[in-house]
Input
Amino acid sequence: MLLDNQLSGTIPDSLYDIDSLERLIIGRNQLTGMLSQKLGEMPNLKVLNVTRNGFDGEIPIDLFFSQSLQVVDLSDNELSGMLSSEVKSLTSLRHLYLQGNAFQGTIPKELGENELSKYK
Output
């Protein structure tokens, strides 16, 4: 867990090669750039917390096909675009936090097909 430090720059590609990683908690830093498609390819990732950084661009589509993600916190970044209806593919998802970004459009009706206990 690297929460609440002074980390800056982008997430190194080598981090995505750690197949055993279950929790990537790097919120409240000064990280920037776009989130990588490789996040959705991490087979055991259950918790993704990148809150309060400077990530921009759209949510990578591959992230929506993760079979293991249970908690996703992308809040308080500079993410944009529309939330994909592919969010329904996150079958293990229980908590989703997206507030404080620049998303546009409507909330996909497919979001209601998940068994979310909490989303913002």
Observations:
- The chain has one domain: 8-119.
